[in-house]
Amino acid sequence: MASPPSRDQADRIRYIKGDLFTCPRTDSLAHCISEDCRMGAGIAVLFKKKFGGIQELLDQQKKSGEVAVLKRDDRYIYYLITKKKVSHKPTYENMQKSLEAMKTHCLNNGVTDISMPRIGCGLDRLEWDKVSALLEEVFEDTDIKITVYAL
Q1: Would the pLDDT of 108 be above 50?
Q2: Active-site residue flag, 124
Q3: Residue 83 annotated to the active site
Q4: Catalytic residue among 27, 62, 83, 97
């Protein structure tokens, strides 16, 4: 018989109904983009308007399965690179690799709280059950808390 999830696991991902950009200013943010950093649709447009830095992101030359990062004030903005072109669809494998890359950056930079939308599940059409399972798996041995916002 499987043991019940530890208190840590139960608290790892919290769900909030509301606007992602109302999260605490101390939380780092995360969302998914393509290698070309187009950000022309969905929540990515809001990230582009709010944080800019497109050239800064492009200069990092990150590939699918990696993460590009902007530092804004005292927090990081994570751009999970889950596909090559804006017209492509991401894979769960690239999502997992990008999450692993983000975790490594978080651990190396003392990040303890990340807020995000239901990554990969809007225009990219991944299934939230699978993506949330990846989040649980990737972050299970950390103290990083994730808050997922949905409108």
Answers
A1: yes
A2: yes
A3: yes
A4: 83
